Amino acid sequence: MCIFTSDTNDRIQMIENFSVFNHVQLIKMNNLTVKEIATIKKIFNQFDSDNDGFINHRELESLAIALNDPLTPAELVDFFHLIDTDNSKKITWNEFITYWANN
Length: 103
Ligand SMILES: [Ca+2]
Ligand SMILES: [Ca+2]
Known about the structure:
Blueprint: H1 3-16, H2 20-30, H3 34-47, H4 57-66, H5 73-83, H6 93-102
Helix pairs in contact: 3-6
One calcium ion binds at residues 84, 86, 88, 90-92, 95.
């Protein structure tokens, strides 16, 4: 198998993991490349340890620790609110990537 075939398959696989609408919107809004979005999606999935599609407080705490930036409980609450823009107490993929792209 040549490199190009492998690359193309990977890219198709990555794109299939996103909602097409979100994907196009985000690229327009934030000028993120497909590769960058895929990396951020991997991080999101990695920290969504119960696989419910949302990052909760506890999962965000693990992420902060992994980024070598352990937060106090108060800082964690602030950080969570910063990303959870609709105050649903859950961080969606959309909220996560919006935060990531703007920071
Ligand atoms: Ca979760
Ligand atoms: Ca939310």
